Amino acid sequence: MKQPMQKTIHCGISVNGEVHALAQLSAKFQIKARDYGLNDSESLAVWIEGNHLQVQTYFGSRKNEYRTALENGKTKLLNAPKTWNL
Fold this sequence. Notes:
By secondary structure, the protein is of the alpha+beta class. The protein is built from four helices and three strands.
């Protein structure tokens, strides 16, 4: 059963949606982020910022790739709305 979920990511965007699980909200965020020019690595980096376990899981030893994707993604989202209802 779908339920309302919300996550505020470090760059200040509040992501809301009716989903089955938080992973589904993450996927919806990544799809919407494409509208602002983010690629999948950038949107993932923005979503997981601050969660060192997830950074390790998804980027492993590619720390420079993570940092670059994170900075590029955050720059592209500077003028994005601060509330996303997905």
